[in-house]
Predict the 3D structure of the following.
Amino acid sequence: MKIAEPQARFLRACRGLPVDRTPVWFMRQAGRYMAEYRALRQRYSLLEICAQPELAAEVTLQPVRALGVDAAILFADILLPLVPMGIDLDFVKGQGPVIGNPVRSPADVQALRTFDPAEDLSHVMAAIRLLRQELPESVPLIGFAGAPFTVGSYLIEGGSSRHYLHAKSLMYGQPETWHALMEKLARVQAAYLLAQAQAGAQALQLFDSWVGALSPDDYRRFVLPHSRDVLDAASSAGVPLIHFGTGTATLLEDMQQAGGDVIGLDWRVPLDQGWARLGTESAVQGNLDPLALFAPEPERRRQVDRILDQAAGRPGHIFNLGHGILPQTPVEHVRAVVEQVHARALEPAQEPIL
Amino acid sequence: MKIAEPQARFLRACRGLPVDRTPVWFMRQAGRYMAEYRALRQRYSLLEICAQPELAAEVTLQPVRALGVDAAILFADILLPLVPMGIDLDFVKGQGPVIGNPVRSPADVQALRTFDPAEDLSHVMAAIRLLRQELPESVPLIGFAGAPFTVGSYLIEGGSSRHYLHAKSLMYGQPETWHALMEKLARVQAAYLLAQAQAGAQALQLFDSWVGALSPDDYRRFVLPHSRDVLDAASSAGVPLIHFGTGTATLLEDMQQAGGDVIGLDWRVPLDQGWARLGTESAVQGNLDPLALFAPEPERRRQVDRILDQAAGRPGHIFNLGHGILPQTPVEHVRAVVEQVHARALEPAQEPIL
């Protein structure tokens, strides 16, 4: 049976199919660096925007209109599913997420509720349905969730962390509790991703943003099986899966083992070297340093060109940053990167890699 | 001409010579996790301890007495040389170093003073001379300095940083100013290292702790030549040089090019893989996750054994952490790691690798 080929550049690249131009989108492409977003944030908190489908959809569309990117990503936060799990979550200015009741014991893990995302996060699904009505077919909508390690580290630490003292202490000191927490998070995130696809998300990204804090040995023992559970379950949705992390130079092959059609690369890994390690079975997404967006034009163009040179027009490259756009980023620089990536026509003779 | 072989385990390993036991020391082995240190800090600030040779020497000796490590490292801070350069430096509780007058323009770089470390940091040299009288020959004294990138990033940011917004903006946006700053820092740090060796330091470590924030391309363009200048100059002291960074999985070969007899590995790089990439011309130092020191005995022993297994008794391994000891670390766990490393006798038939 031959599956119909997608037409949108972004979805074609996810599948390793030839494209006319390299598709480009940016992690955190909706956010504080845009005046339209800051204007809305004058009146609504982050969680209020996420809770109101019209607002979440509006914020999701802002960068699509302003930048001409090849994909939209639902405006949401990886910690949203913690609320129906019974976690007291807040976002504090200058500090990031703050969790009032961190999870550090078997009883804490036991107390975490599982839930029905279609019902308990129905506002997310409503935003997705709204967006699918608004977005053209050429701009697919990406849904996403946080991976068990990254979400778990927030849960255990009670917020952002530098050294993961509590998370790693639990991992090493109470491995059964650790695995019980990871299993619960894997079930919740898998159901959440499936519900997003059901509502209309056309690709799904798993954010394991902080997993680069681990050695490969620890990743394999404590994380890989749980990320694999999420990605295995999500694969039944039939949409492309993107598996992303930062600081993952020594984890790439293991993350590929865990799953995902597309592997995210950060700027520390030269794109050609990372892709060579992953081989032809994976597409890749990345990998401009978000700080390159602050550079004057010649330096910025040089860095973008270098990545496109490393990709060498090979089907299966999605241009992105190595991590999210920072709030101070000049919006006109972001737009210029989209134009630069789109200005470079790809050879018509590309063969599919997957 | 045959140079006399050093007898101390640590110095032998730096030179790739066979040893009876793997030498072990810890970055930040003097510090807040030790009751003796906390007691002194009740009465003196960090900068006061550094400024008084007797106190700096006493703090340096505390872990030598308590742990049985194979090397002492001078108690000091990589930012000390900024004070005679004209920088307003303070250490703020819970925040780390704070710089009152960050360096962000050509005039700021111009205004930085170079100085004579033997004179303007004479208290450091006095502490080294005191320590050489106190320490047995089996416990060599390590001196150290911060690498141009890592010290420069503090100078430009005005303190610790997560994204290096100001540092990378200067690097990309004002490359001439960037290189002028790096050159000045390289001159200062090289002179500082040479003065420490002159005063009696028996090995020198260059800390490029935060260089893992850079892509390999940026490292080669903006950092490598300056780190090489420091290490080239320091090599004339005739003592082993250790070149250390974290998050450097994609930078190891370039750091080796910049210099150092010993290359530091953090826990993200499996020791055997990192060493294989560096080849036989380098010794290696590392690479236990500092968080493994919080683990209960079986897990802790497993991780230590794994590193020793990966080193496979090959001459030229110095056991250490992948980064510094954290303040909450149980001191008895640190001592147990020293005992575990020392309990493992190495084969007598080792051949020198260098």
Notes: Strands of chain A lie at 72-73, 89-92, 96-99, 141-146, 203-208, 241-245, 262-264, 283-288, 317-321. Chain A has one domain: 9-343. The interface with chain B takes residues 163-165, 168-169, 172-173, 175, 212, 214-218, 247, 249-250, 267-270, 273, 289-292, 294-296, 299-300, 306, 326, 328 of chain A (CB under 8 Å).
